């Protein structure tokens, strides 16, 4: 059997982009910035029926308003004309308020728009591990994003303590995702999430302590909830933890760095699709199991810091694969099994030399 024409093919993408801006800063308490953007992309390949193109033209205006020293307001607006999809008027507003010298509050709201790419619409990609098809019936994504940050910074000579906490909420209509064929884990097609919207919400918090110049300790948590592909009232959730310690020995001049992360079990709703009708059925949970990861590095300067030796271990817990279940993992070897994660524990040693010239 002779191979198809697309089996030996080069796909050519061309992108043309132009941007211009104008700024006005003559007034003390308000500044303006406006401009335009032109973005045009074409693709040609035997995997495409014909040469395809997408693009848009947009005009934008943003302002920075300082009604008083401790408060900053930044509204913005953008008009988009897309050559294929009808785009809404998108806008955003950001603010920062220095409540106290050590406490600041920030917030933002943004309305978003994203047209499907040429790859998502038209390109059919096939090799021994993949059979991913574009979908010319895709609709554009629109969304709303809300964020609030609370920042606290206490700086006392050699001691510094800081914390940044973020609350967020995202709602994306017609979210574009890959849907996998349950009978063939290498086969997938792009589709719009049928729930009409996907919601993600959660928080992150990051704590830092510094004892200059010896010690820096960082710890953080990230919690996220993601809605089902057919029901925005059903959510999966995961919580990740990170920490990082850096220690500098002033007497012996070596530096030690240890990084640790706990990645929580990641779950999401997936469904089987009738590849002919596009109907989604048999919605279930897909997951990747939780795992721990740690890296450690030691660095030592020698010969008046001209030479630096650095050694360490990456992936100390020797993570190679993790348990997975459900669809959506092309390289998992089936609907249930394991997903490749890393090649295992790695040790390294590096030496560097710095040339200094003194006049």
Textual characterization of the structure:
The structure is a single chain. The protein has 1 helix and 23 strands. With 359 residues, it is an all-beta fold. The chain has a 15-stranded antiparallel β-sheet, with no helix packed on it. A 4-stranded mixed β-sheet has the order 7-8-12-11, with no helix packed on it.
**Helical content class:** under 10%
- Mean pLDDT value: 87
User: Which structural class do the helices and strands define?
Assistant: mainly beta
Number of helices: 1
Q: What would the principal axes of the Cα set say about the shape?
A: globular
Helix and strand sequence: EEEEEEHEEEEEEEEEEEEEEEEE
Number of domains: 1
CATH superfamily: TonB-dependent receptor, beta-barrel domain
pLDDT below 50 for ≥5 consecutive residues: which ranges? Answer: 328-334
Question: Could you say what the CATH architecture is?
Answer: Beta Barrel
């Amino acid at each position: 059997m002779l191979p198809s024409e697309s089996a030996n093919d080069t796909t050519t993408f061309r992108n043309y982009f132009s941007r211009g801006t104008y700024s006005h800063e003559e007034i003390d308490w308000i500044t303006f910035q406006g401009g335009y953007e032109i973005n045009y992309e074409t693709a040609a390949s035997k995997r495409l029926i014909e040469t395809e193109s997408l693009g848009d033209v947009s005009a934008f205006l943003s302002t920075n308003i300082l009604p008083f020293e401790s408060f900053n307001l930044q509204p913005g607006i953008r008009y988009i004309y897309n050559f294929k999809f009808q785009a809404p008027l998108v806008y955003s507003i950001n603010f920062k308020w220095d409540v106290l010298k050590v406490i600041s509050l920030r917030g933002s709201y943004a309305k978003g728009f994203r047209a499907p790419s040429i790859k998502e619409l038209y390109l059919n990609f096939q090799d021994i591990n993949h059979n991913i098809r574009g979908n010319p019936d895709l609709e554009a994504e629109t969304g709303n994003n809300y964020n609030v940050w609370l920042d606290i910074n206490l700086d006392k000579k050699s001691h510094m303590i800081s914390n940044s906490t973020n609350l967020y909420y995202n709602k994306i209509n017609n979210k574009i995702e890959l849907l996998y064929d349950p009978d063939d884990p290498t086969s997938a097609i792009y589709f719009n999430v049928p729930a009409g919207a996907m919601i993600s919400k959660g928080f992150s918090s990051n704590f830092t302590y510094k004892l200059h110049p010896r010690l820096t300790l960082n710890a953080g948590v990230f919690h996220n909830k993601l809605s089902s592909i057919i029901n925005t009232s059903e959510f999966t959730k995961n919580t990740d933890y990170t920490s990082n310690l850096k220690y500098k020995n002033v007497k012996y001049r070596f530096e030690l760095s240890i990084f640790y992360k706990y990645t929580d079990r990641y779950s999401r709703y997936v469904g089987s699709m009738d590849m002919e009708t596009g109907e989604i059925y048999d919605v279930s949970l897909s997951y990747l199991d939780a795992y721990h990861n740690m890296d450690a590095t030691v660095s030592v300067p020698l010969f008046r810091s001209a030479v630096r030796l650095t050694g360490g271990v990456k992936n100390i817990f020797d993570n190679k694969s993790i348990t997975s279940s459900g669809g959506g993992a092309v390289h998992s070897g089936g609907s249930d099994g394991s997903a490749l994660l890393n090649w295992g524990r790695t040790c390294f040693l590096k030496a560097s030399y710095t040339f200094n010239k003194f006049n």
